[in-house]
């Protein structure tokens, strides 16, 4: 099969066994790969009702068919499991070089169940998998363990957890070659629960392409499109933090745990151009990507000195900057480094600390409760101390290690309004009061509040225009809920494909849909049209929603937090809040959900999901 | 209200007057240094038979040169913005945000993008003031 390696690796850490299996082409065509195929396997083969940290919860590392092809943006892979942070479907995607290397090692994915009695590493080298003792790696941070794993072979690619994953922090991340992170939904804790410290891959078997000549032609067109794209240029020059200046102007940037609407000093000090002028040492690219959006930074001296390493994304500049009223970019870089080393999602970690600072200001928690730390806004010494306490689950850190929702629940009813989440996952750093479509996208994203399981941001904020795919405006008014249900529906059906194709979200914005479609067809030989992509996206969303329905998700969970339903007094989003009822009612009708938010039987059959229908409707 | 034929010198003068008279602009643009040329691609079907080149220059909140120029002069600007007539018309009528047009590839920019991002408020204010000029568009007049 072109594009695919043709095999999936199955690892049982309880038994210490490794085996492989194949999937028929028709099924691959239906679910494509990545997190979409993972969801199909999860529904088919596993007990959904296990505890996320139980041995039975499968941790899947999944490629898509374009991974390893050399096409720009196809370095991505997905990691999935039932999330320990949310208790529902969990997934996160990542770039770098691990995905292509896994494909060259002979596998389209790895599914890990069980639990080792003692820490282990899994090595997958040219089709051979081996479980071995992790020796003295347990307890080491992600940078240290990665360096040790690469000591003998720098070309080996490493996924590893740090202390946060070992200590089952609910938003623990998985590090990928010290440069990329599988951050959201706490999948590092799932890895830690299995006592799996690292996964190493190495291979030299490139996947085939259905039509090499056609592919070369499309590849050239793709490179030309990227060179011509202002969006790609801004990412190359300023990384994702290019969004900070414009975002402050348009009402996108959350400030002081979502309570303020505007602070141009903050954005000026924390923006992409500022990072470029101060701490940026170079730009870094994922495999075969000409954009090179990743920042590499170093703070060479002062209290926030760091070694040269991955720099903060826009989201991190918010969670450890605007959200906690820290005006010092060097301190953001330091917090980012600590999260990377401990292995924690920077969005959840920063947002949970922002919540704690607000609770401290309101007197809901005091200094004694906070282990004698001054939880004042912008107090970065406290932030660094808290990050360590969270990673090692010490004192108050152990409360925060549960994430915003569970921590607020522990801290009492008065704390609940300060937790800004959907389905237990903290909101990413885009304010729905400036962009109502994003509010709906947060409400309906299957992993909890998410800005990447759809292309709503690109469409609503005007970064892209795809009239060839569906009817859409070139310029949306962010502060209206009218018409946004259709925008979000379409944006999910196309945008979610980056998770099954395993193509970078940013490249989805830089490349024409025709180019992506043609490249996909040249690699796989599948001959997809746009409608096939959109049906596939709808199937992906519906499958994951159905799984969540089986796990208890319904209309009661499709809600925005109180903060987002409270108007701001200043800034571009002032006075505006999403009309949650209108958005949800329209969306449910378009998506084929019942009034209680359950996928209708008709929709399940229409999208070719009879197994899910049987489970959901007990047929 | 007086109407000005779009993309002419008298129209540019009216635009310049709006900018020069804006206290808000003066404050927002206090750090801006440099010129921006605007090229409107020819569209004979819309009564724009030849490309129109405009040279605009700004300095620390003041407006300096603001004139119709030739292609060579347009190339001398610190920032060069180019687009089809229909797109510029949408921008001037506030139907399409200039930043969005840039990201969607409907307008092209040559120059230091980081400077533009840092000063996006200035750019938006200049465009906002343009939309206040009562314009008679070539295909509407």
Give a brief outline of the structure.
The complex is a heterodimer of chains A (619) and B (141). Chain A is α+β, with helices and mostly antiparallel strands and 619 residues long. Helices cover 40% and strands 12% of the residues of chain A.
Describe the structure in your own words.
The complex is a heterodimer of chains A (619) and B (141). Chain A has 27 helices and 17 strands. With 619 residues, chain A is an alpha+beta fold. Chain A has 3 domains: 8-202, Aldehyde Ferredoxin Oxidoreductase,  A, domain 1, CATH 3.60.9; 229-419, Aldehyde Ferredoxin Oxidoreductase Protein, subunit A, domain 2 (Orthogonal Bundle), CATH 1.10.569.10; 436-495 and 529-616, Aldehyde Ferredoxin Oxidoreductase Protein, subunit A, domain 3 (Orthogonal Bundle). Chain A has a 6-stranded mixed sheet with strand order 2-1-6-3-4-5. In chain A, strands 8-7-12-9-10-11 form a 6-stranded mixed sheet. In chain A, strand 7 and strand 8 form a beta hairpin. Chain A is globular, with a radius of gyration of 22 Å. Chain B is α/β, with parallel strands linked by helices. Chain B has a single domain, classed as Nonspecific Lipid-transfer Protein, Chain A. In chain B, 38% of the residues lie in helices and 28% in strands. Chain B is built from 7 helices and 7 strands, in the order E-H-H-E-E-E-H-E-H-H-E-H-H-E. Chain B has helices at residues 9-20, 23-28, 71-74, 85-92, 98-103, 113-118, 120-131; strands at 4-5, 33-41, 52-59, 62-69, 79-84, 107-110, 135-136. In chain B, the strands form 2 sheets. Chain B has a 5-stranded mixed sheet with strand order 4-3-2-5-6. Chain B has a two-stranded parallel sheet with strand order 1-7. The mean pLDDT of chain B is 95. Chain A binds chain B through residues 228-231, 233-234, 237-238, 242, 245-246, 249, 264, 268, 271-273, 276, 461-465, 474-475, and chain B through 90, 95-97, 99-106, 108-109, 113-115, 117-118, 120-121, 124.
